[in-house]
Design brief:
Blueprint (H helix, E strand, L loop, with lengths): L1 H44 L2 E21 L2 E20 L4 E5 L4 E6 L4 E15 L7 H20 L2 H23 L3 E4 L2 E2 L3 H7 L1
Length: 202
């Protein structure tokens, strides 16, 4: 009878031991599959997010030179500038860690936006005195100054905010996925609890 009871106990221990290792293996398999799915989704959002905008503006350039004993020579030009601007986030440069055991997707670095502008210049109403005429250098200086002004204006414009909104929209896909799988999305070790919180942190 003792041998029978001992046999039953051993059988139960072996059964539950086997079941424990099978469950543990299944859990590891599930974690591996989940990690692979998250890696795949990160690669899906690792693209170039580009926001485009166009601007048209009129500028007036004036220059007066003192030629001799209070005598001045003037030159003036009006130019129309049509500018295409792009703001891009290259999410292929985003850095992250997948912490499988802790079920955490941690974003460690998001690339800064790249602003590129492509102005086209049309000069109108160019007037100049004989002693103060336009030269090639003048046109280059004008273009450089105008380009700088346009860039500064765009940096303060809504196009930058629109680009950031698109960035947030892409990263929200990662939040939705990790949340649905029971994982946590972190940014600089700070857990993201909601889509709105992600927008604030960025």
């Amino acid at each position: 009878m003792k041998k029978f009871v001992l046999g039953v106990v051993v059988t139960i221990i072996v059964f539950f031991g086997y079941q424990y290792f099978v469950d543990k293996k299944d859990n590891k398999t599930e974690l591996a599959q989940t990690s692979a799915l998250i890696e795949k989704e990160v690669k899906n959002v690792s693209k170039l997010v580009v926001t485009e905008s166009s601007y048209a503006q009129i500028f007036t350039y004036k220059n007066t030179e003192n030629v001799f004993l209070g005598i001045t020579a003037k030159k003036k030009a009006i130019l129309a500038v049509n500018t295409k601007a792009t703001v891009a986030y290259d999410l292929a440069q985003m850095q992250y860690e997948v912490l499988t055991e802790d079920k955490i997707l941690r974003i460690t670095k998001i690339p800064k936006p790249e602003l590129n502008i492509y102005p086209e210049f049309d000069f109108y109403d160019v007037t100049q005195d004989y002693l103060n005429q336009f030269k090639a250098d003048d046109y280059n200086v004008i273009k450089k100054r105008v380009t700088k002004q346009i860039k500064e204006k765009i940096e303060k414009s809504v196009v930058m905010q629109n680009a950031e909104n698109r960035l947030v929209s892409e990263l929200q896909k990662l939040f939705i996925l990790t949340n649905s799988l029971g994982w946590t999305l972190e940014y600089h070790k700070q857990p993201i609890q909601s889509e709105k919180e992600l927008e604030i942190l960025l």
